[in-house]
Structures are given as C-alpha cells and as structure tokens.
Amino acid sequence: MEIIHVSAECYPVAKAGGLGDVVGALPKYQNKLGHVAKVVMPMYRTKFLYDNLWDVHGKGARYLGDRQFDYTIIKERTNKLGYDLYLVDINGLLDREKIYGYEDDVERFTAFQVAVVDWLNKWQHKPDVVHCHDSHTGLIPFMMKYCYSFSYALASVATVITVHNAEYQGWMGWNKKNYIPHFDDWKIGMLEWQNTINPLASGIKCADKVTTVSRSYMDELRQSANGLENLFEYERGKCVGILNGIDAEVWNPATDHYIEHNYSFEDIKEGKEANKQVLCEQFNLDITKPLIVFIGRLVGEKAADILPDSILASVYGMQANVCFLILGSGDPHVEWQLTNMINHFPGNYNAVIGYNEKLSHQMYAGADFLLMPSRVEPCGLNQMYAMRYSTVPIVRSTGGLKDTVIDMGDEDGYGIRFNHASVGDIIYSIGRAVNVYKEDETLQQMRTRMMAVDNSWDNSAQQYIDVYPIINNQLTND
Ligand code: ADP
C-alpha cells in the first residue's frame, strides 16, 4: 500500500511538538511492515534542509486568490529517515525559520495544501491513501474530492485525517474562499463550521476516516472539542482512536546521543543517578532530593498557569525536600513567573525558557519524576518517553495520559495519577512522589516495570494499516 503523509511538522526536519514526533516515526514503521509510506511537508529554513542533499522532483504554479505562486517539490536524496521525504518550496511563503506564528499562516498553509494536491494530481499513478495531519492539511480531502481541477484523478483516492489536537482548527474568513481552487458552490457546507471556513472541521467531514491519537481523547472530543463536539458526535461512525507510539530507536537510553550517560535495563539505578548528577550540577539542584521535571509548551492546555503556584506550595509544604526543573516556552506571563522564581529557591528550583531537544532528553534520563498536569492531552508523548527512561510519570487522568499510565496503587502500577488540574491535586501527588522516593525498593520496582512497557510504534503502526483497507473496501463497494 502506498501512503502519503501530509504534515506541517516532521522530526528531525522541523518539530514544534508531538505532531513532529509522530510524523517522523509512523512512516518508518509502516515501511517496516512492508508498505510504502512517504512524507510531504513545507520547506522551512531549518538545519536539516542545509545539512542534506536534495533533488528537484516537481514544479508547478497555482493561484492563491488573485496571487499566482510557483512551487518546487524537492526530495531528500539518500532516504536518510527510512522513508521518502518531499519538501514543498514556495518562495516568500514557506521558506521561513519558524513553523508557525506568522500573520499570514492561513496563506502559507493554504498555498502548501494547494501545491501538494496539484503535485499529486500530476502523478502517473495514484497513491492508495493520503493521510493528513491536523488543521494545516485539513482542506486536502475537500480539494481532492470537490475541486474541479483535482477531483477527476483524486476523488477516488482514500483520505484519512488524524486529529492530533482539536484546539487549533485553522479558521479562515469567507473572504478567503477564493484561495481554494474552483469548486461547486453546493459543496460549501463541507468547508463550513459555525459561519467560517474551518479546515479541521472540513477535514473531518470530507475524509473517509478520522483518527485521533488515543481512545480516551476520541471519547472526550464528543464532550469538549473547542466547538466541534457535535461534529465528532455526528461523524463517530468513521472515527477511531489509535494511541501514538514512540520511536524506540530515537528514544532509547542505551543509545541516545543526547544524554551524558547511556543506560539500560541492567543498570537503571546507576544510569539515572549519573544523569541526574549532570542536571543537578548544571542547574544547581540538590541531588539528594527527588527531582521533578516539566517539559512542554507553557500554555493553558498543559495547565502551565498553575505550575508556579504548585511549585511554590510544594517547596514550602515539603520543607524544601523536593527539586523542580522546568523546560518550556509559551505564555509570556508564565515564562516571567517561572523565571522570576529561580532566585527564590536556589538548590531546589530552576527553569530554562526555550526549546532545547538535547536538554529534554537529558531531563527524561536524569529526572526521578515527570509532571504532566494537562487539562487537555490528546495522547501525550512525554509520559511515554519518561517511562522509556524509567522516570515516574505524575499525570492528570485525561486523554492519552489515562490510557498509558497505571497508578502505583493499582496492580502492576508505575505512575502517579490525579483527577483535577488544580494546585491541591498536584501538591498531593507530589507528596506521594516524595514518599515513594524514600522507599528505594518500591521505586526500583516501578522503574523496572515501566521500562518493560512497550509503547513503540510496532503495534500502533499496524492499527493504522488496518484502518486504511476498510476505506478502500468502502470505496470499491460504492
Ligand atoms: P504537544 O501537545 O506539545 O504536541 P506532546 O506530549 O504530544 O505535546 O509532545 C511534546 C513533544 O515536544 C515531546 O517530544 C517533548 O519532549 C517536546 N517538547 C516540548 N517542549 C519542548 C521544549 N521546550 N524543548 C524540547 N522539547 C520539547
């Protein structure tokens, strides 16, 4: 089966969060299963672009409203990532340093989608599945099915959209309708949700199959999906929750080049201690105390706004018998609060504001606990990375966190779970962490147990494959 993944992110080319990790790994594992999976994404000005060799694979020109744009598709020459990687170069729109956050993001990603569909339309053969990821690719199923210039060749190609995060939907005003190549106006309802063009909603309506990144998140979306609840309810027949996996080759404490001391099942305790020492020296933290880390976007979804109060209350409440290290960026006020606290608790607290891949790996390896109080967590990869590195996850019971972490009070448990994204629940859970840290035998048991859990893509990649043929059968039967 030939599968084309279309995404705004793909690790190690460009990553802002979990989407990049998933699109970077899933195709590799699908190829291992004997399929042909490829990735197409925008060409940003990233290190990966300059460090690798590229061949021109295609060129074209299209309109975005009244504005004509040229695009070039380049292909990575050596199959370095274990799958064919194509980048879409659109001069002046996509070739920027950051992935998101520009005023013209709507124009950038709409042009990207038009270029991808135009390119696919010119292929001599057709792929079996076009697999879209999140709102930046949400208009593709509509374009393939209903735009006059594409539907003849592409309407019969199966489409899947994976919702990694329903909070961001890519809303655009009707004044931008002419960005989308000509289509029958009767189909306008397939673009619309609550009086705007809503690319994510359009993807959900038009794709043959909709997946989200955990079963619990799929259930939760019918109650809370930033306005799309009824749509998820209406389309539930074609929705499936498939838990993300982790790339067990990239995230392996035995071989990870980012960490100072490699370790495996046999020397978990020594390995973690050596890595903790590196962190404690670098960030002036007391190595004798349990080290709790947070890694992630400092936004409301991750409950970052209650981190400062929770840390403050925990350090005071536990007579400074606990240490915290934070890595993240996001809400400027939270960044300011977290930075301000550094001088208040020397030896117990530190924070790095920004994005740092290497440091994140060192933190997974050196920490005793990883805190994730998320209000919304579609799947969450951090807790799975933590488990792979034998770091006890302290998580709120929501979405994928609920599906992957078993509380230490339950049979075969290895984590700490709580119910509310509140300072009270966090302090209570940190109390449990501090207590278990004192019981070395229990802690080592939990560490061994969680490291043995297989969260790799081997399992989930097959589940995606199982979803695809159903679509093909449906199409053939129609
Ligand atoms: P998200 O909602 O942000 O996609 P996930 O848990 O699915 O959350 O994925 C987060 C990914 O991003 C993980 O690989 C995590 O290590 C990484 N990450 C998040 N923030 C940072 C940061 N500031 N520095 C380095 N890596 C980060």
Structural account:
The strands form three sheets. A nine-stranded mixed beta sheet has the order 3-4-5-2-1-6-7-10-11, sandwiched between helices. It has a six-stranded parallel beta sheet with strand order 14-13-12-15-16-17, with helices on both faces. The protein has a two-stranded antiparallel ribbon with strand order 8-9. It is an alpha/beta fold and 478 residues long. Helices cover 38% and strands 20% of the residues. The chain is globular. The chain has helices at residues 18-32, 47-51, 105-121, 140-146, 148-154, 199-206, 215-221, 229-234, 268-283, 307-317, 332-340, 357-366, 382-388, 399-404, 423-438, 440-451, 457-477; strands at 2-6, 36-42, 54-64, 67-76, 84-89, 129-133, 158-163, 192-193, 196-197, 209-212, 239-241, 291-298, 323-330, 349-353, 369-372, 392-396, 416-418. It starts with a strand and ends with a helix. Residues 472-478 have low confidence and may be disordered. Adenosine-5'-diphosphate (ADP) is lined by residues 17-19, 21, 295-297, 327-329, 355-357, 360, 379-382. Adenosine-5'-diphosphate is lined by residues 17-19, 21, 295-297, 327-329, 355-357, 360, 379-382.
